[in-house]
């Protein structure tokens, strides 16, 4: 298994100045490399305390690239619907070169109505815009003199500069929330997968993974490209009671910021987001203790978290785990402690001996 850090900020100006947030996050990214983590990842969101301090993953990851030498850089995820593919492909190719081939590109659809409204886009178009943007970026990276005549974009012939450092292009990951067909399509296309297991029942996640892995194998893609990233809120302490109490506190803070961000779903419906009108009620009824018992959060002592991960590996196989150690806005010192305890006492149990 591989492990990394996912920076999902749940913080706003009333909590922490943006400059302070970025200073602390970059220190933690450097620490991730020093402690032997495999990747650093961040999200794309706007306007709300729920992710709003990360409107451009590429900018943050470029700063991480300048401070590190080894750790992979993962967008988790960029939103092609919000950026023209010529711009998005160019920015990502720059980052791939700056980092000397350490980039993995996660693409996502987005799901917050206020973001689509601000960009003056229909949520009903999110799936075809996602698919077209991803395909256009992939062609711009892999080919020259690209001519594109799609549903939303027309351009060419153009040859993107710079060319990606990785050829034909950086590894691609596709974010899937609750839709099995999206996982199946990612497998057919030969992409990796980004999942958030906390929002689905274990059996549903296992179904999605089975469909994905079968589609990947049936399409004849080479072994090793079917990487699955899973993100988990994470809080470690050597004191079990402290870990549980503070893990619960920070999970509740995260949910509070998410409720604000998804509030528009109370009055919004979209064919492309079946069931999302229930999201506010589901978050309001979130039960941390149940999530803990179902291994949907990595909270506890190092020994307890080790056992949770062993169970997760039994359920889902050899996946890549992203630790959300800043969500809920814990003090910097506590995030650093969680990272150190995990690296020193948990991670070695999951490393394959040389």
From TrEMBL:
Q: What is this protein called?
A: LLM class flavin-dependent oxidoreductase
SUPFAM superfamilies named in the record:
Bacterial luciferase-like
Q: List the PANTHER family.
A: BLR5498 PROTEIN (PTHR30137:SF8), LUCIFERASE-LIKE MONOOXYGENASE (PTHR30137)
- InterPro entries per record: Bact_Lucif_Oxidored, Luciferase-like_dom, Luciferase-like_sf
Keywords on this record? Monooxygenase, Oxidoreductase
Q: Where is the Luciferase-like domain?
A: 1-316
What is the species listed in this Swiss-Prot or TrEMBL entry? Actinacidiphila epipremni
Keyword field contains Oxidoreductase: yes
Q: Which Gene3D superfamilies match?
A: Luciferase-like domain
